[in-house]
Amino acid sequence: MCQHRRPTGSNLQQVSFLEEQLDLLTQARRQDRPDTNPLPPAEWERLRQENEHLVKRLAFMQGRRSALSPSVVVAKMTIQQRIQDLTVTLLTYQKRPNGDRAQQICRLQATIFARYEAGESLKDIASDLALLYDTAKKYLKRTRTLLRLPSMSL
Question: Which of 6, 40, 51, 109 holds its CA 20 to 30 A away from the CA of 21?
């Protein structure tokens, strides 16, 4: 009937993918249901639910795209501010937070996390920062773990 692919890339690409999937489902519905031979009720319900899901996802992605599309300068300032906030938070978990190495690693982890949050792929982030993909992935996992921990009271 209709082939499913997973969306990859930017939000705009995901929205385009969802629009394409919605069109495919609509066409499949029209082709599979001639007036003399309707779909079985179970198949009809599955297609209806999948269509609803794709419509909701499309609306969400379009809203997210419009929310993320202010000027590039504002977006960069927001990411820079997020990196600074994350760096300060991550430094609280370091044994020697005043050390250069701790600050450098926390800044790197914060950069990876903030850019990943902003929608960049981990592969692109790793190549930009001249890191191995696995290293960037491990830093991202460590940052997520640390951010889930309850705040330390000093």
Answer: 40
Sequence ranges of the domains in the chain = 11-68, 72-148
- Total residues belonging to the chain: 154
DSSP annotation of 154: -
d(CA 2, CA 20): 11
Cβ–Cβ < 8 Å for 123, 133: yes
DSSP string of 20-87, one letter each residue: HHHHHHHHHHHHH--TTSPPPHHHHHHHHHHHHHHHHHHHHHHHHHHHH-S-HHHHHHHHHHHHHHHH
Q: What is the pLDDT of residues 62-96, one digit of tens each?
A: 665 544 444 454 456 688 888 998 899 899 888 88
CA–CA distances in Å: residue 94 to residues 99, 106, 115, 136: 9, 9, 22, 19
| Residue given tokens 């790197």 in the structure block | 108
Terminal-to-terminal C-alpha distance of the chain: 60
Mean pLDDT, rounded, for 24-37: 64
φ and ψ at residue 141, rounded to 5 degrees? -65, -45
* pLDDT tens per residue, range 9-20: 567 777 778 888
